[in-house]
Design brief:
The complex is a heterodimer. Chain A is α+β, with helices and mostly antiparallel strands. Chain A has four helices and six strands. The chains are: A alpha+beta, B alpha/beta.
Chain lengths: 126, 432
């Protein structure tokens, strides 16, 4: 399915990530998935949260640069080769993958993928 | 040795007399040939006849870098273009360079003052001079070149950079004088250690360093590293280039070629001339230049003057080592950088906010410039490639204007300090 991802621009500074998570916590929002991309000077925090709009509003008020993007979330069996099958389908259909994150637990592996065409990706994968 | 004894050792009365005559002649020339100065003088209600001695300098208008820009490229020339044999240019604040011009006589004057400077630093016709200043539009390379030839020394016109070749030629040719920026001299001394060359075994004996501010401590470090005596040469393209002044073996200030360039020191706030020994903004009036004479050109460099006779025998007025700047110009790796240049670039890039901070540092011997830029909220992307694209775009545009490589750091919007009044845009961490 297509879900909303919330991204936050963070400059590489001690405690800056904590300030962002503090805003989210104080607004009673739950983070269900998270990844951080980083360079020497800055990072991008990407999250799936329980209330995207509320989290976005709260972060904006605290002067964070944020962006809401469509990403797709799929669940695959926790077996060797399952991720490969998905990536194969995407590339066969000309869908570009920008980044992804995920984990596996109890035999299942939910994945979050940022792709060039989320709608088409869902059609292809589900 | 003194290159031009009559000019460098004359009495104060003789010098004032010479300056009076040359000043009158120059003011008459610019009044009749340069519309900019004629209009300025007319608006002040003065004519060439009102200027008879150097005491009358205070009646004359100032000239600033902005005036040069406003008259870009050829508006301040005082001779027909057919008389001009050379143009030089330096970086300007809006991306347009500051243009300067020379007639054949001006080029000869340039060579003369550089020969004096080299001689003042102890150079002779028996020296081999390695010129590691950049050659080209910058006056450093070609300026020292012509002066060295006039002195009769052997010139190695290697230009800047290519450090390993610098060291090879220095060793193989037996270079005795090195001319470059002080930071590059320090870098060369370190590269020498890395290359396993012992400076004490080289015939190198004199350094002619300028084009950027440097401290007494740095001079000692360079002298020790290269096993030489380091001299301070001062100049700016607007006045002629390097050779306006140079330190002698007594290292107590820089002798100014005041038969060509009359110095004044101004109170930076009131712009009134101050007495000898008091620090202020250094201003020059060129009294022999033909192509582009400048009246009371404000250098923005802070210095002070002394008219005491030097132990070396020269009677010319001496200026102190540059004490600082009266504007926000930075000199980074010998290149003039104004924060406003960075600002003008950022205003052209929608992804960047015009809020920035320049952080100048020195890593080893090389100056570094980091520019922190606030990214516009609307252009923030969850994709690293997008942000890196923005960063590279800013880097390319800034570098094409400044002419030096920079580090661009993207920072969160609204995080750089805003201030009311004069913004603090620069953090200079260099210890010079």
């Amino acid at each position: 399915m297509i879900i909303k991802q919330l991204s936050v621009f963070l400059q590489n500074e001690l405690g800056r990530l904590e300030e962002a998570t503090d805003v989210i916590y104080k607004n009673n929002i739950n983070i269900t998935a998270l990844s951080i991309a980083e360079t020497a000077e800055y990072g991008i925090l990407r999250m799936i949260v329980s209330d995207t709009d509320k989290a976005a509003e709260a972060l904006k008020e605290c002067d964070f640069s944020i962006k809401i993007t469509d990403v797709i979330c799929i669940e695959v069996p926790d077996n060797s080769g399952e991720l490969h099958k998905i990536l194969r389908k995407l590339s066969d259909n000309g869908i570009n993958l920008s980044y992804m994150y995920g984990y596996s637990k109890s035999g299942k592996a939910p994945l979050i993928l940022k792709v060039s065409d989320p709608k088409k990706a869902i059609e292809v994968l589900e | 040795m003194i290159w031009n004894e009559p000019m460098e050792t004359m009495s104060r009365d003789e010098m004032i007399n010479l300056q009076n005559n040359r000043l009158k002649d120059m003011v008459t020339r610019v009044y009749h040939n340069v519309e900019f100065y004629r209009k300025k003088m007319q608006s002040l209600g003065i004519e060439p006849g009102d200027i008879n001695t150097i005491e009358d300098l205070v009646k004359l208008p100032f000239t600033t870098k902005k005036d040069l820009r406003d008259n870009y490229p050829f508006g301040l020339f005082a001779v027909p273009k057919s008389e001009i044999i050379r143009l030089h240019a330096s970086s300007g604040t809006t991306g347009k360079p500051t243009v300067v011009a020379y007639t054949r006589k001006d080029i000869n004057t340039f060579a003369e003052v550089v020969a004096r400077a080299l001689c003042c630093a102890g150079g002779t016709k028996n020296d081999i001079i390695q010129i590691a200043y950049g050659y080209g539009l910058f006056t450093g390379g070609l300026g020292i070149h012509y002066g060295s030839e006039k002195l009769g020394a052997t010139v190695v016109p290697i230009s800047g950079g290519n450090t390993s070749k610098q060291l090879t030629l220095m060793k193989d040719f037996g270079t005795t004088i090195l001319a470059c920026t002080p930071s590059y001299a320090l870098y060369l001394s370190e590269a020498m250690v890395d290359a396993g060359i012992d400076a004490k075994e080289l015939p190198l004996r004199i350094g002619i360093f300028g084009a950027e501010p440097w401290s007494q401590e740095m001079r000692m470090k360079i002298e020790e590293g290269l096993n030489i005596t380091a001299h301070d040469i001062y100049g700016l393209s607007e006045i002629i280039g390097p050779g306006v002044a140079c330190s002698c073996e007594h290292h107590s200030g820089l002798h100014i070629a005041e038969d060509h360039f009359i110095p004044e020191i101004l109170n930076p706030d009131t712009l009134a001339p101050v007495d000898a020994g008091i620090a202020g903004e250094l201003t020059f009036t060129t009294i022999t230049k033909e192509a582009m004479p400048l009246i009371r050109y404000r250098t923005r460099d802070l210095s002070k003057l002394t008219y005491d006779k030097c132990e070396c025998g020269r009677t010319n007025v001496r200026m102190s080592k540059i004490l600082g700047r009266s504007d926000d110009m930075l000199i980074i790796r010998g290149v003039n950088v104004f924060p406003s240049q960075v600002e003008s670039v950022l205003l052209d890039i929608p992804e960047a906010k015009p809020h920035y901070m320049l952080i100048v540092d020195r890593q080893g011997t090389m100056d570094t410039l980091e520019i922190q830029v606030e990214i516009d909220d609307r252009y923030f992307s969850d994709e690293m490639a997008q942000l890196e694209h923005i960063r590279k775009k800013i880097k390319q545009k800034v570098e094409s204007i400044l002419g030096i490589s920079v580090i661009i750091s993207l920072v969160e919007h609204k995080t750089l300090k805003r201030s009311e009044g004069k913004a603090q845009r620069v953090i200079d961490k260099r210890k010079i």
